[in-house]
Design a protein that fits this description.
The complex is a heterodimer of chains A (120) and B (146). Chain A is mainly alpha-helical. Chain A is 81% helix and 0% strand. Chain A has helices at 3-25, 32-57, 65-88, 93-116. The longest helix of chain A is centred in the middle third of the chain and has 26 residues, at 32-57. Chain B has helices at 2-6, 22-48, 53-74, 78-104, 125-145. Classes of the chains: A mainly alpha (120), B mainly alpha (146).
Chain lengths: 120, 146
């Protein structure tokens, strides 16, 4: 697990959340820049998950593998799913969906970090 | 409603469905909670059934209720609206009863569920969610009948 990448993902995710909340309160629908932002965020997440899969194949495996894999699947699916669902809505509630997803993502990453290297 | 001005196109059908506007966000939140509660409950049931079967089964049940509510909200039509109304009501009763039981008696649910302590482990979202859900369903229903 690449520690700095987790940090970057959490920062980008929170920044996306703030940006989308601003859009929501300014009554704007979701636009292409929002979508590009989600794309960047998704690529970062894919990079992190890819690095973890490589490490797991290499034999580095935490205790609760099933739990970890289900969390990894969730963080991979969350950004595109919410981007599509939000983009379909042509009102301020589109960015609101993205903001919600981007607030959940950092929490999921914290859980993944705990599962990957449990602190005694 | 602002979404009526924001979407002047003909994409919205004449009868307002639950999934547009604020409903869009509600469905997303319900979907996440459905996943969280079902996955957590199932995992605990499979791995640690003997520790607290009732609490884990309740987690799975809550997850299924969230899932049914999400689908009911996301689909158009009167049947779906009734499904959404019933499932959100079940959720409201569930979070209040389980919340009260976990608050005043300690023995029944030794392990936490989404509804324990009125959902305090989940930022009280499980308590707020059914209130917003009921508000939205009734609002759409009224707008439809007018």
């Amino acid at each position: 697990m690449v520690d700095w990448l987790t940090m970057v993902i959490q920062m980008v995710s929170l920044a996306m959340a703030v940006w989308c909340l601003v859009s929501t309160f300014r009554d704007q629908p979701m636009l292409v820049p929002h979508l590009v932002g989600m794309g960047v965020l998704w690529l970062l997440v894919l990079g992190q998950v890819g690095a973890m899969i490589v490490a797991m194949v290499g034999g580095e495996s935490p205790d609760e593998t099933v739990m970890l894999v289900s969390y990894l699947a969730t963080v991979v699916l969350l950004p595109p799913a919410c981007a599509v669902w939000g983009f379909m809505e042509r009102s301020k509630w589109g960015p609101a969906v993205i903001a919600f997803a981007c607030l959940i993502l950092p929490v999921l990453l914290v859980r993944i970090e705990q599962l990957w290297s449990p602190v005694v | 409603m602002s979404d009526a001005e924001a979407a002047p196109t003909t994409t919205t059908p004449p009868d307002r469905t639950l999934r547009t506007g604020p409903g869009r966000l509600l469905v997303a939140v319900y979907a996440v909670f459905a996943l969280a509660a079902t996955a957590r409950g199932t995992y605990q049931l499979v791995t640690r059934f003997e520790e607290a079967p009732l609490a884990y089964a309740l987690s799975v049940f809550a997850g299924v209720v969230y899932l049914v509510a999400a689908i009911g909200l996301a689909r158009a039509g009167r049947t779906s609206r009734r499904v959404a109304l019933v499932s959100v009501s079940v959720e409201m009763v569930g979070v209040l009863v389980v919340g009260a039981l976990s608050e005043f008696t300690s023995g029944i649910f030794p392990e936490d569920t989404v509804w324990s302590h009125f959902g305090s482990g989940y930022l009280f979202i499980p308590l707020i969610l059914p209130i917003l859900g009921l508000w939205w369903i009734l609002k759409v229903h009224r707008a439809d009948q007018a």
